[in-house]
Specification:
It is a single chain. With 370 residues, this protein is an alpha+beta fold. It has ten helices and 18 strands. A hairpin with a 6-residue loop joins strand 15 and strand 16.
């Protein structure tokens, strides 16, 4: 890390990407290289934000709208030096996020860049606890760092430290990230696997489930407290939570260190109200939402076109939390939005929300007591 000069924009941003080499010496950058780096930068921030907010399993595969609104890379006017792109991590909709959450993700971002610069592999891999998110994070770093032999080097300037610092990324970091990708794949992570109960061995206290996507048999141990439940739900869908070793196609091949075994409850959600920090949403007519499984039988789903709901998760508890968060997002982004800011379908959704739900404000003191 080396001291860096002050940024040139009228207001001082949080950070700055600085390119050197080739056309950057003339204060120009190929659009493809610049766009790839900025896009990667935004993905890194989004993934760190998802980790910070502990978002559900299905959201490993997409960036939720609420995350995109809360944590955005906001670019300032480019500057010379050789080619510098100032930016800050801010919010497109500041009313949806606390100052503390935004500061936490900014700190995580700095820690990520420091870990990459100093090639601290364990620290880098620990930034995302979910295997899929971890792979996406490393892939984003690979897009951020210029390719080996490209003629460019890239540094990230951090202006928020007491002495502004610069993390320089060059060819050696591109090579390093290829090695880290292999390490990310090697890790075994806690995961929920859903399968059909096939066998119970009471002597070994083990069960065998059939994993539907591959028809593979997975043998797992269970504790004595689960025995009655297993007997009541023979041939049912069972969820096993434990350390899952994955094969080359990312399918489970064995489960160890089992933390929990339970049957999969697909009974409908009966919803009367949702309570949030400062307001409550109460349905004028209690809502019944049917649960279903996706084609792999690994994800629980709720789809309701009338309410604009499309929710997925790998457990009933996580599905409820995802439903709650999606209702909050729909209310904030549609029901409270000005009509002239909404498309025709969005306006129709707003009208259905307002017709079917009553909003009640909750005082800060009441929220604290509850």
């Amino acid at each position: 890390m080396i001291p860096t000069s002050s940024p040139t924009p009228a207001h001082e941003p949080d950070f700055q990407l600085r390119f050197r080499g080739s056309t950057a010496e003339h204060h120009q950058m190929p659009a493809e290289v610049l766009a790839a780096s900025i896009e990667a930068l935004q993905k890194i921030v989004h993934i760190l934000a998802m980790e910070h907010e502990s978002r559900g399993t299905i959201e490993r595969l997409r960036i939720p709208e609420t995350i995109a609104a809360r944590y955005a890379v906001l670019c300032d006017v480019p500057a010379e030096g050789s080619y510098a792109q100032p930016f800050q991590i801010g919010a497109l909709k500041p009313d949806l996020i606390t100052v503390q959450d935004l500061a936490s993700v900014r700190d995580d971002f700095v820690q990520a860049m420091s870990a990459l610069y100093s090639q601290q592999t364990e620290k880098l891999l620990s930034l995302a606890s979910d295997r899929v998110l971890r792979k996406r994070l490393i892939a984003a770093f690979q897009r951020l760092v210029p390719k080996a032999g490209s003629g460019f080097s890239l540094s990230l300037d951090d202006f928020k430290t007491q002495l502004p610092t610069s993390y320089l990324f060059a060819d050696r970091h591109a090579l390093y990230l290829r090695q880290v990708t292999a390490r990310a794949d090697e890790r075994h992570v806690p995961q929920i696997v859903t399968g059909r109960l096939d066998k119970i061995d009471f002597g070994e206290r083990s069960v065998t489930i059939i994993y539907p996507p591959t028809s593979r048999q997975l043998k797992c141990t269970y504790d004595e407290g689960s025995e009655e439940m297993l007997l009541e739900h023979r041939r049912a869908l069972i969820q096993v939570t434990g350390i899952v070793a994955l094969d080359e196609d990312d399918n489970p091949q064995r489960v160890t260190d089992v933390q929990a075994i339970s049957y999969l409850d697909l009974s409908a959600f009966e919803v009367e109200a949702f309570e949030f920090d400062h307001f409550q949403l109460r349905f004028r007519t209690p809502l019944t939402l049917a649960l279903s499984l996706d084609e792999s039988e690994q994800l629980l789903c709720i789809e309701n076109e009338d309410w604009g709901l499309n929710v997925f998760a790998d457990s009933r508890e996580q599905l409820w939390q995802e439903l709650r968060e999606q209702m909050e997002m729909l209310w904030l982004e549609y029901a409270r939005e000005d009509d002239d800011q909404l498309s025709a379908p969005a306006l129709a959704l707003k009208q259905r929300l307002l017709a079917g739900i009553e909003e009640t404000m909750v005082s800060t003191e009441a929220a604290r007591v509850s």
